[in-house]
Amino acid sequence: MNSNMSSSWDTDVLEGQLFKKLTKYSLYLQKLSTASQVKKLLQIIEKDHVEQLRSLDQFIQESQTRHNKAVRSLELQRTDLTTTLSKYHTSLTAISNSNITAKAIHDDIVTVEREDLLIKKTFQFVQSVSILKNNISVIHSAIEARDHQLAAKSIHEVRSLPKEIVDSEFAKKMIPTSDIPEEPAVLIEKWCNDLTEIFQASFLEAAKAQDIPQLTSIFKMFPLIGQNSLGLDLYSKYVRGIIAEESRKIMTVETKKRGVFAQALLHLFKIVSTIINDHSKVISACYGDNFMIHVMEKVQKEADLQAGLILDTFNETRKVDRIIKAMNTLNSNRQDFPNDRVAEPETIRIRTHKINDQVSERDGGLKDIGDITDLLNEFSQMLQNWSMYSRFFSVRWYEFLNVTNLEMLTPPPPIADSQYFSKLQKDGFYMNFEILVTQCLEKSFKQSLSIEELPSINDLVLFKRVEHTDVFSYPISSILDDLSLLIRKNLILTLNTGQTQIFSRFLDQIAKFYQNEYLVRYMQTQLKNLQSRLNSSLVLKKYVPKTGPDGSLGSRASSPSTMENYATNKLSQFGFNFRGAAANALTNFQSNLQAVVSDEDAVLSLHHYLIYVNTLYMNPKVAHKLFITEILEENPRLLHDNFPFGNDAETLAKKVISCEALLAKQTTKLQKWSIKFLFENVLAHKIRTILTNILVNGNDNHYISGADDYDDLSTMHEFVTKWNTQMIPYENILLKDAFFDLLSLIVGCIIEKLEKTIWTLQVNELGATKLDRELSLLIATVCQQNYMLRERFAKLTQIVLILGFDDDDFDVDSGDLKEEISNDINWVISPQERVKARSLKIDRRH
């Protein structure tokens, strides 16, 4: 390849030189003019000819050398290729011979393996026959020696042999002897039947004698002779007998003892659980895990029966049905007195006692709240015991079934179709429990109303701000503490039952109870009663109870209701009530009497009203703690542990959240109503009064300020003093949320009045600056650090801001601010309002 390239290159070079020389000769020929020039040209041509010949000789010589080298190289390669081909043919011959040899070896190996397999099979057959013969001899001797366990073990070994060996002709001929002439299969079947009868009798005898080691030993023998089902049936019957016997022992205790039935049911389920846990080891080892399912089904049937008996005895002994009937009768009798809510407490108490006595005589005794609480605790514990047992049984069931990829736990058939579970639903036990919970909650709540305590707030009626350590340092009614304890107790009772239906319905019931009994019948009624004594002339001050002639406190000072009745009765002697006295003031005598008799009572009513407002605003916080914090946040596994089946825990978690949201929604309506009344009927007039001189700096509507009165902010300082006097006590007493809502209404009132005032003013340049200072001081006084309320003054501050701009900042044509200035501010007033605000300024240039 290299020689070819070199030859081609040399040829190109020679041809190029020849062309150049021919061109040169042509030029010389054209210039020839003398003979000497012809001679000279000839010499040049001859010289070039000699040089070209020499170059050609050299080129030919080199080309031949390269060619010879290439030929020799090809000859060598041909020689190497011939050698390789020779070796290749030799290898092919060797491989062909190896294939023949390998096939022969493979055939020999297959033959040897087949012979080896036949030999092993024959050896195994002979060995099995030998084992069969030896075991038959051992069994025969063991049965004669009454060593039944050895016989059973040998039978198990024979049964482990392939059936075709036992039934083979070889075995039939080789094994029978003169002492044991029967065929092996016949002998084994006969011995199994004999041992079955023996083991069954021995098992029953050991069970009767409570010989547990002997019982366990015999129980292990049944699988050895192929009687798995019989062994499990006997064992199940024995275990059911244990359960029944233990149950009878449990029920012999004193049934009137508190909580005895819950303990009895717990003990019963403990026995069943112990049997499943402990005896499963023996069953799994001798029978296999799958046989535990059979035992668990049998055991559950007995547990169902005994648990049902305990439940019936509980129902009869505790007279649950009669108590429920008595409660229903009591409720129906109370419905005959629809005016109980407005009746006097003593009248209600007497009437309730009469109804209770009548029901007690007719229905066997209506239990008091303590007895009902004990009954509920025991009832709840019984349901909880069933729930825990159901979960345990279900988990073990799927373990024995070797189900490991279970996404959610579902009750297996013995639990889902349980007679005890069906009894709880169909025989009204769930309904009875729900009725007891509801009645206990309502009755306990009514008792708590009779012992309600309202704290004194005199220590908070101050003109300096009081720092509260937490929300619980604010004054609230004791009824909220009692209610939260009642709800929490009943939440625990119903949640611990582990019954989805009960807990779900209780959440529904608590929402109804909270709204109807607590918010409407109690809180709203109390607030309405107090509202009749509140008016715009009432001032929040410390309550000083009146003293009698002997210097002691009057009886009305000890009880709010007594004080109210006393004041009402006194005033009714003169023909008017609180509302009439506040509205009419017919004579000076009556006015003076009101000042003497009702003033302090009205102050106390205002105190109580604020306490109830606080109580309302505390409700959502307490509800959030009870439902969200304690159930979902602090104990995230609580619902999952108590309601393990399916999606019950997730469903109930959503319902708990919904219930808490519903309670908050119901409370919010009453909160807004109570705060609105307080503002409109007590504070609105006072706020409008202290706003009278605000933004007044001259006669009529002129707000003209000069150097002499520019720094005079006495009007605003007077407002600040009056504001603090009026509002700081409310701020000390009311919860932050309640005070914020109250302040929101006051801010709305202030904004409405100030806006009307500002639009009527005529302001000069210094007056605009002073107006801005006064408005800023007012906003700071009213809103303090509450920026949400400060934002509501945005319209007013922007109107005043317009008054402070220079004339050069306004467009002459539109009268509005120039675009480059107005674009930098987020306006809440319209361009028209900006133009109108600028017109308030009387010293503008254009």
Relevant terms:
846 residues, Methane Monooxygenase Hydroxylase, Chain G, domain 1, two-stranded parallel ribbon, 31 helices
Structural overview:
By secondary structure, the protein is an all-alpha fold. Among the domains are: 2-112; 691-838, Up-down Bundle (Methane Monooxygenase Hydroxylase, Chain G, domain 1). The chain contains 31 helices and two strands. The chain has a two-stranded parallel sheet. Helix 11 crosses helix 16, helix 13 (369-400) packs antiparallel against helix 16 (429-450) and helix 16 (429-450) runs parallel beside helix 18. The two termini are 105 Å apart. Residues 5-9, 336-366 and 548-598 have low confidence and may be disordered. Its main location: Golgi.
- Treating each run of at least 4 consecutive H or I residues as one helix, how many helices? 31
Distance between the termini: 105 Å
CATH class of one domain: Mainly Alpha
Largest sheet, if any?
2 strands, parallel
Task: Find the count of extended strands (DSSP E, 2+ residues).
Answer: 2
Looking at the structure, what is the overall shape? flat
According to CATH, the fold-level topology of one domain is Methane Monooxygenase Hydroxylase, Chain G, domain 1
CATH architecture of one domain: Up-down Bundle
Radius of gyration: 55 Å
The share of residues in extended strands comes to under 5%
Put the structure in a nutshell.
Belongs to the COG4 family. 74% of the residues lie in helices and 0% in strands.
Describe the secondary structure blueprint for this structure:
Layout lengths: L1 H30 L3 H110 L3 H12 L3 H4 L2 H6 L9 H26 L2 H8 L8 H23 L9 H27 L3 H28 L2 H15 L10 H19 L5 H32 L12 H4 L2 H8 L2 H22 L27 H19 L3 H32 L28 H13 L5 H6 L4 H10 L1 H35 L4 H5 L5 H43 L11 E2 L10 H20 L2 H23 L3 E2 L1 H19 L3 H5 L2 H11 L14 H4 L8 H8 L8
Parallel strand pairs: 1-2
Helix pairs in contact: 1-2, 2-3, 2-6, 3-6, 6-7, 6-8, 8-9, 8-10, 9-10, 9-13, 10-15, 11-12, 11-16, 13-16, 16-17, 16-18, 17-18, 17-22, 18-22, 18-24, 19-22, 22-24, 24-26, 25-27, 27-29, 29-31
